[in-house]
Amino acid sequence: MSYIVEMKDIYKSFGDIEVLKGFNLKLREKEKVVIIGPSGSGKSTVLRCINRLEPIQRGSIIFAGDEITTKTDLCMLRTHIGMVFQRFNLFPHKTVLENIIEAPTIVKKMPLDTAKDIAIQILDRVGLADKQSSYPKELSGGQQQRVAIARALAMSPKIMLFDEPTSALDPELVGEVLLVMKDLAMEGMTMVVVTHEMDFAREVADRVIFMDQGIIVEEGTPHEFFANPACERTKMFLKRIKH
Length: 243
Description:
Elements: E1 5-14, E2 17-27, E3 32-36, H1 43-50, E4 58-63, E5 66-67, H2 74-79, E6 81-84, H3 96-106, H4 112-125, H5 141-153, E7 159-163, H6 171-186, E8 190-194, H7 198-204, E9 207-212, E10 215-220, H8 222-227, H9 232-242
Parallel strand pairs: 3-8, 3-9, 6-7, 7-8
Antiparallel strand pairs: 1-2, 1-4, 4-5, 9-10
């Protein structure tokens, strides 16, 4: 069976702190994987290693059949791997439309008119068709995060990585971002999502992974994982989340 992402025996340290300790992950095309776990367990580092934002000390990463562990053409690699962060990282001096067309026109050398047409279509898709001329400071946090998702989608990625995309939002704004992510999942986008939104994991994930101290402690379908976790560490974490 072919996989779009394979992480094999990954070790990653920050100074003397070992964050990933022989981490392994295989992801099929169109699969939706949600990673949960306590702070400091290595969840975000997994995502950052997939798109080579972080180098690894040992192991192998294969993306779409290509070994990328030491790949140097990172700009081209990242055209295929969209990533949405906790913070929106939009250019404050550019309009919504300008934020979205920046990468397609500069990295992909896409004609400006084509990039604008695609951006407008994607803005409509994320419910922001009327905000293309707005600046980030004129938008709510939820709207800014949806622009960040649109910006990633404008590159037509093969996979989307979400690093706690709702953690910086006010509670009433979380739903609008999760709705866009659910729509992407329904459309067949391959996704890896680090989140504390357990209802999202139950509804959208094909597989839920629980990480602790740099390794996968337990994984399974949402039903298996939440209804009958096998490991005591998982049970303890879920009990704390509920309370």
